[in-house]
Amino acid sequence: MSDVAIPNFGGKRVLVVEDEPVVAMCLEDILEGLGCVTIGPASRLAEGLALAEGKDGIDAAILDINLGGEWSTSIAAALVGRGVPFAFASGYGNPPEGFEGPPMIEKPYREAEVVAALRVLLT
Amino acid sequence: MPPPNPQESVDAPLPVGEDEFRLIADSAPVAVWVTRLDRRRSFVNRAYAEFVGLPYDEALEFDWREIVHPDDAARLLQESIAGEASLKTFELVGRYRRHDGVWKWLHSTSQPRWDRDGNHAGFIGVAHDVTEAKEGELALREREAQLSAFIGQATAGFGQVDLDGRFTLVNDRFCEIAGWSREELLTKTMLDITHPDDSGRNAGLFDRAVRDGTPYTHEKRYVRKDGSEVWVNNSVSVIRRPDGEPFGVLAISLDVTARRNAEESLRKGEETLRLAVEGAGMATWELDLTTMEGGWSPNRFDLLGLRRTPDLRGTVDDWLDRVAPDDREMVREACYRCFRHGIPYTIDYRIRRADNGEERWLQSHGSRVADSGGGPRRFVGVSIDITERKRAEEKLRRSEESVRLAAAGAGMATWELDLPSMEGGWSANRFDLLGLRRTPDLRGSVDDWLERIVPEDRAEARSAVFRCFELGEPYAIEYRIRRADTGEERWLRSHGSRIADSAGGPRRFVGISFDITEHKRAEGELRESEARFRTIFEQANDFLITTTLDQKVTQVNPAVLAALGYTEEELVGRPISDFMDPDQFEISRAAVAQKLANGGATRLTLAVRAKDGRELIWETNSRLTIDEQGQPTGLHAIGRDVTQAKRDEAHLRLLIDELNHRVKNTLAIVQGIAQQTFKAGVEPIAARRAFEGRLAALSEAHNLLTREHWGPVSMAQIIGDAVMPHGGDAGRFELDGPDLPIAPKTAISLALAIHELATNAVKYGAISRPEGKVAISWEKIGTRAAPRLSLVWIERGGPEVVVPAKRGFGTRMIERGLAAELGGTVKIAFEPGGLVCVVDAPLPEVGPPEVGS
Lengths: 123, 853
Description:
heterodimer; A: alpha/beta; Rossmann fold; two-stranded antiparallel sheet; 7 strands; globular; B: 853 residues; Beta-Lactamase; five-stranded antiparallel sheet
C-alpha cells in the first residue's frame, strides 16, 4: 500500500481507549497523521465509557480489549447503542464473546492496519 | 469384573477384578465361583456356566440344589450349611447333573474370603470333576462287595492263608467244614488243623506252590475241634498281586468225607458200593494189576464221551487219550506211581470229550487195593466231573484279579491289612507312589507309609487311619508326602475303609491312594493368582470401579474410597450420578450409550465430587463387561486423579497467555517509545541515545517487576532505580517518602516518567551543574476512604530555567501519559529557580499479583 493510497480521514473523530500511555500516544500520532481528531485517549474503563456515552460526536472508535484487567465490552455495547462503528485492539487472543463482528487490530499498532480498520469503519 | 447382580447387599471387594483373572478363571478346567455374604454368587467362571449350561447371568442366579442327585441332596445341603457356618474351608463331594443330563461327581472346595478388615465376605469355590476317580472307587467297592458276597455265600469253603500258612481269611463254610470257629482259625496255621498223617505231604506241596507258584489239588484230613476227622478236597492256588508277587495261598475246600467213606465201603462191598457211587455221579474203574485187565462203569464212558463197549472194558490208554495233552504226563505219572508204588492220587485235569470235543475238568482219585493176602492186586479209580467247580474257581480268581487290576489301572495304589495281625501288603505302585523300593514280598507297614508323610500332616493321617482301624470310620484325607527317592513333595489323596467279615467283625482294612499333586498345584496356582489379583485390586493407586449397566456402583477398590472420602458402604449400590454434577453424569451416560452401540472403550475426563464437596478431575477409561454370550453385563473402569495436573495445566495456560500479553504489551510500548523518539527533525545520534536511555529505564522497571513476580513494587525502589543511571548513586537526588506499594503497570509508567525528568535534569536542569540537586518527595494524603498520592519533584542549583519552545516526548509522557495512568493530574512548572513537577492522583488499593505465586 503506497502513500498515495492512504485515504484522507480528515476531521474524523476517533475515540481511542488504550490503557498504556506510551502506546496511546503512538496511536494518537498515527491518527493525527491520518488527519483524524483523537477523542481521549481514555486509559480506564470509566473514562472511556463516559466519552462513549457523552454528547461529543464520535465517528469511530478503537478499543483496547483489556484495560488493566477490565474489559472494554461495556464501552463497545454503548457504542453499538449509539451506532458508532468500532474496532478492537489486542496484543493477543480473540474478540470478546458477542462482539465477533468488529475488525481486530493487532498490537503493536501499525499504520497500515489502523488504516484498513478505519476504512471498514468509516466508509 | 462386576457381579451383574445389582443387589443392595454390601460386597467385599471381589478377590480379583480384571479381565486377566476372568481369563485365568475361564481357562481353568474346574468350575470356579465366588459368593458374597448373602450367599449369592458374584462370579462364576466359564467351566461353571458350561456345566450348568446357562449364560453367565443366569448361572449366577441359578440354584445348585436343583441339579443335585436325590441320593446326595440331603447330605450335601447339610454339609454345605455346616461348612458355611464354620467359616473354614470345607469340601463337598456329590453327584450333580450336567446340563446334558449326565451325572457327574464333583469334588468342591469352598474357601472363606475376607475383606481387608478381616471380615468374612463370602466364599470362593472350586469344583473338579472326580467322576472317573469316584466311579473307579465305587466300582472297586462294588467289586469288593461282590467278591465278598461270592465268598461268603459259596457252598465251598474258602480259606486264605499267608505265605507262612497262617489263616488270614476264612468264610463260614470253611469254618463249618474244618470244625473250628473263625476266631480260633485265625490264630492257627493250616498245618495246625491238618491230620498228622497228611501234614508232611501237605507241607511239601504248599512250599512248592509258594516257591514256584504251582497250583495243586489234594485231599487230606482236618482234625476238628471235637476230635473228629473230615476229609477235604482242597484246590489250592497262590494269590498274587498285580505285579505277580505271591502274598498268600487260597484253598477252596470241599467236604469229601462222604466220598471217602464210599471209597472205604468199596473195599468192603464192591457191587453195592458201585451202585452207590454211580448214583452219586461218580465214574469208577478197576484194574487187575497182575493182568492189567479191567472194567469201567458205564458212566465212565459217558464222562469221556465214548461209546459204551458191550463188555464195559476200557484201557488205561483209552482214558489217557482223552486227557488234554498238557495234563497227560502228570496224569500218567500219578497213575503209574499208584500202580507200582501204591501211592494214591487225587488229580485235577482236563479232558476233551470224544463225542463233542468239549473240554471238561475231571478230578480222579486212584488207589491200590491190597488183596486179602496183602499183595498189590487191584487198582480202583473214581472220577468226577468238576468243570463247574473249576469254572467257579476261575471266575473267582479272575474277579479278584480284576479288582486289583482296575485299581492299579486307575492310578490308585492299594494296600490291605489284616487287622488282627496288622500284617498286610501293598500294591506295587504304592511303593512307586512313595518312591520306595518294592520289597520282594510287597509288604509295607503303616509306619513305612507314615514316615513318608510330611511332619505337618502326619498326625492327622495317623489319626484318620487308626480311627478307621479301631472304629471303622472310613476316611478320605489329603496330605503331602516326601518321596523317599527324589525327596520331591507330592500331594496324595487316600481313602480307607474297614471291611467287616460275614460275621460282622472287623477283619480287614483296604486303602487306596492316588496322586493329586496336579490338582493341588492347579488349585494352589488359582489361589495364588487370586491372591495376586486381590493384591493388585486392593493396592492399586489407580481407581478400579465396576458398575451395573445403569451405572450403579458394584465394586470399588480402596483407592477410590480414599480419594472420595466415602466408606465402601456409602458407595456400593449407589448410582454414579450421586458423585458428580448432572452435566458430568450426562457425559458419562453418553459414553455408556456409545459403548453399547459400538463396543470398545471410552476415555473421559470427568469432574467428580468428593464427600466433602471438593471437585476432583478424573481421567477414566471404561469398558463393557461382556459375558460369554457376548452380552454386556456391566461396566468396569480404571481411572486416575488428574486434578492437580489439570490445575497445573490451567495455570500454565494462564501463564502463557499472560506472558504473551506482556510481551505484546512491551513491544507496543517499545514501538511507542521508538515512534516518539525518532521523530522527524531529531538529530539521529541524540535520538539513538535517548532511545537507549528510555529502553534502559523500561528494562530496569521490568527487572524490578520480575523480581517482585509482577506483584506490587515499592515506590522508593522504582524511583531510586530510575534515577540511578543519572547520578542517583552520587547523592544528587534526595528521595523522601513512605514505602508505598504501586501496581506493576503504574510502575512502568512512573519509571518512564521519572526517567524523562531525570534525563531533562541532567541535560538542562539541576544535575547539569555540579552543585545542583533534585529533591523528590511523596506522601499519602487524603482520607482513609479516599487516599491520594502527592509527589513533588523540585530541582535546585541548576542554571536558570528556560521554558522550552516545544514540548517533546518527555513532557508529553509525564503530563499526559503518567496523568492518564494515575488517573490524576501531573503538572510541570518551569520555575526560574528550577523545574518543579507536581503529581496529584488517587492512590488505589493495590491487589496481589495477577498471576503467579
